[in-house]
Specification:
Layout lengths: L1 E5 L8 H16 L3 E4 L5 H12 L4 E4 L2 H5 L11 E3 L4 H10 L3 E4 L4 H15 L7 E4 L6 H12 L12 E3 L2 H8 L8 H4 L3
């Protein structure tokens, strides 16, 4: 399975997150999976790639060309294949098209945006790929309280909370990604 990992690019985050994500990258390969990711060399993106590389796995990085020309962030220099589209929109499309499943590890604005976009596409039945949120050290606890509040106030249908899996346990994450996804219709998931 080709697993897309969304996560932080920051090099200054707590090392505990780095260690957990690097270990996850190693586990991906041991379970027969390959990595698709945003091509960054730092933060949790770099950690996932280092774990996959250490275990001998395959890595596809996708990072817009302006990240290099404008020196925005370090680029992973050991990808098996590195694609450099022009825009962030193209980047996300390439990552989605080349992935069978998604893991969201802690991150900032870009990671939130990637998670909500891939979740929205699943809500609209544009794909039915598994989405797992690896809630390392309770990072996403408050976000999911907010999502549950949106359900209670009828902004989100409750079934939408079943479109992804959240856990702080790596083994549970991989088990979920390997399980069949329930088929749904847009009417099950969206009013409007």
């Amino acid at each position: 399975m080709r697993i897309c990992v969304y996560g932080a690019a920051s090099p200054s985050i707590d090392k505990k997150y780095i260690e957990l994500t690097e270990k996850m990258g190693e586990a991906m390969v041991k379970k027969g999976h390959s990595l698709v990711f945003g091509g960054g060399g730092n933060g949790l993106m770099g950690a996932a790639a280092r774990g996959v590389k250490k275990a001998g796995g395959s890595i596809l990085g996708v990072i817009p060309s302006f990240f290099d020309s404008e020196n925005i962030e370090a680029i992973c220099d050991f990808c098996d294949k590195l694609i450099t589209p022009e825009t962030m929109r193209e980047r996300k499309q390439i990552m989605e098209d080349n992935s069978d499943a998604f893991i969201v590890v802690p991150g900032g604005i870009g990671t939130y945006e990637e998670f909500f976009e891939i979740l929205t596409l699943k809500q609209l039945c544009r794909h039915n790929k598994p989405i797992a949120v690896y809630n390392q050290l309770g990072y996403y606890d408050e976000l999911f309280k907010t999502m549950k509040q949106a359900v209670s106030k009828k902004f989100i249908k409750e079934d939408c909370l079943e479109l992804f899996f959240i856990s702080n346990n790596e083994e549970e994450i991989f088990n979920y990604l390997s399980s069949p996804q329930k088929q749904r219709t847009i009417k099950d998931l969206k009013e409007g």
